[in-house]
Amino acid sequence: MLYWLALRLVSWYSGFNVFSYLTFRAILAMGSSLVISLLVGPGMIKRLSRYQIGQVVRDDGPQSHLPKAGTPTMGGALILVTTLVSTLLWAQLGSRQIWLVLAVTFAFGLIGFLDDYLKLVVRNARGLPARWKYLLQSIFGLAIAAVLYYTASVPAERTLYLPFIKSFAEPLPAAVFITIAYLMTVGMSNAVNLTDGLDGLAIMPAALVSAALGIFAYASGNAVFAHYLEIPMIPGAGELLIFCSALSGAGLGFLWFNAYPAQVFMGDVGALAIGAALGVIAVMVRQELVALVMGGVFVLETASVILQVASFKLTGRRIFRMAPLHHHFELKGWAEPKVIVRFWIISLILVLAGLATLKLR
């Protein structure tokens, strides 16, 4: 909106041309989402507390989590709203990519909201049954995958690229592309949700991965940078930098209240939406494998659950003291802040490794 207004004011004052720069608008998007989060957050937490929308803590988990019962949750709505507002303020609203990623984010956010609402407001301990949750995720995941394939404007948008191998470019049939896009969107959505088990554990890696994907989007949308870095040139992808910056700023603003000891939890409404957004952006900029590296913490958390379940069903033994992985380290005696910060450090290293693939080809 403000971007649109600035373009029309250029004829009055040439200084408004600065808004045509993606990097400048990205800074404004991150700053505005951060400020809005800090301003709106306290009121939202009070309202959630007033309506007694508090966290339910499992009694079979780490005993240190029992005092967290009743802490306001569904705070992920703050992330979604601030991301939406900042994106609409600073993005080019004619961008197909912007509207697609917003649609995916809020579709998965709706699934998370239904689950949280049933558990926390209706007091249905099961929440949204797993089969219905997965069905809705599958419908939205397949829908966005099909839209991305059939609305692609250039062949590069439907081609598989591998990091470190600059000569590899394999055009994908519709079925293969849609399968990959579906798995990235739904898989990342659930992976972030599984990671969201400690104060601030999921949101910091998500903000880091979002910022890094924004860099990939900016480079992919710029013909000069894409040619120099030998990455696919995706027309219009640069505008995704605005969304990624807004999401990172909103995440940092949420972390202000979610840092240990948390005043509010994200809930499924935030975790499912953020994960889906990261997954679909990775598909849009054709960096699925790099995204899995940068989001390695999410991948490890998911893998720990899969391995734990498979091992127990096949052998009757557990590999970890408790899954997801962060609970294993808690039960080993690591203090919660130590688990969180160490996972953050690992995430930062993995994000830097992912960014290094821009040059190492």
Verbal overview:
The chain has 361 residues and is mainly α. It has one domain. Helix content is 66%, strand content 3%. The protein has a two-stranded antiparallel sheet. A hairpin with a 2-residue loop joins strand 1 and strand 2. Helix 5 crosses helix 6 and helix 11 packs across helix 12. The longest helix is centred in the N-terminal third of the chain and has 29 residues. It starts with a helix and ends in a 5-residue tail after the last helix.
Number of helices: 14
For the record, give the distance between the C-alpha atoms at the N and C termini, rounded to a whole number.
38 Å
Helix content, binned percent: 55-70%
Low-confidence stretches at least 5 residues in length (pLDDT < 50)?
none
Q: What order do the strands of the largest sheet run in, or round the barrel if closed? A: 1-2
Overall outline? globular
Q: Using only CA atoms, what is the Rg? A: 20 Å
What is the N-to-C order of secondary-structure elements (H for helix, E for strand)?
HHHHHEEHHHHHHHHH
Average pLDDT number: 90
Q: What is the total number of structural domains?
A: 1
Major sheet attributes? 2 strands, antiparallel
Strand content: under 5%
Query: Can you count the beta strands?
Result: 2
Short account of what is shown:
The protein has 361 residues and is mainly α.
